[in-house]
Amino acid sequence: MGITIISKYFRYKTREFLLVGFAWMGLASPWVPEIIEMFILITGPPVNNELVIFIYLLINIAILPFYVIAWLIATISFLGIKKNSRSIIMGITYALTFLFEILIFYFFYTNRILIGEFSGPFLIEWSLFIEIFFIICIAFF
């Protein structure tokens, strides 16, 4: 779906098609770590819990704000929000995103339980901090 929307950009040359298509591609990104984990399980090398959490961290959590920001920029453009209000909204979004990203990587290297725990194949029990992060991202969508 996202690629179809992005392809419309080349016909209409409207930036919003790129942003919305990118955001739609982000909706499918939570499945990518499961695909990678399944490939690892099928090919046979032992699965390291830290490796799985790192894959989830990079693919699911770390890039999620980029999809949210793309969606927010497109939505602000569609709604025709004034430039001053747009700057305030985006500034707050960038600040929160930056803060969460720093905290997520800090917790990954200092105390992984603050991110989540691997509880079996294809299953991570996310911490309250990450669940709040997900709820905030969903609220923007």
What would your notes on this structure say?
- The protein has one domain.
- It has 7 helices and 2 strands.
- A two-stranded antiparallel sheet has the order 1-2.
- Strand 1 and strand 2 form a beta hairpin.
- Helix 3 packs antiparallel against helix 4 and helix 4 runs antiparallel to helix 6.
- The longest helix has 28 residues.
Topology:
Elements: H1 2-12, H2 15-28, H3 32-43, H4 49-62, H5 64-79, H6 83-110, E1 116-120, E2 123-126, H7 128-140
Antiparallel strand pairs: 1-2
Helix pairs in contact: 1-2, 2-5, 3-4, 4-6, 5-6
At a glance:
The protein is built from 7 helices and 2 strands; from the N terminus they run H-H-H-H-H-H-E-E-H. It is mainly α and 141 residues long.
Span from first to last CA?
16 Å
**Major β-sheet strand ordering:** 1-2
User: Could you give the order of the helices and strands?
Assistant: HHHHHHEEH
Number of helices: 7
Percent helix range: over 70%
Q: Report the portion of residues in β strands.
A: 5-15%
- What gross morphology would you assign? flat
Low-confidence stretches: none
Radius of gyration: 17 Å
Query: Which structural class best describes the helix and strand composition?
Result: mainly alpha
* Number of domain units: 1
Mean pLDDT: 80
Main sheet specs = 2 strands, antiparallel
Please report the total strand number as a whole number: 2
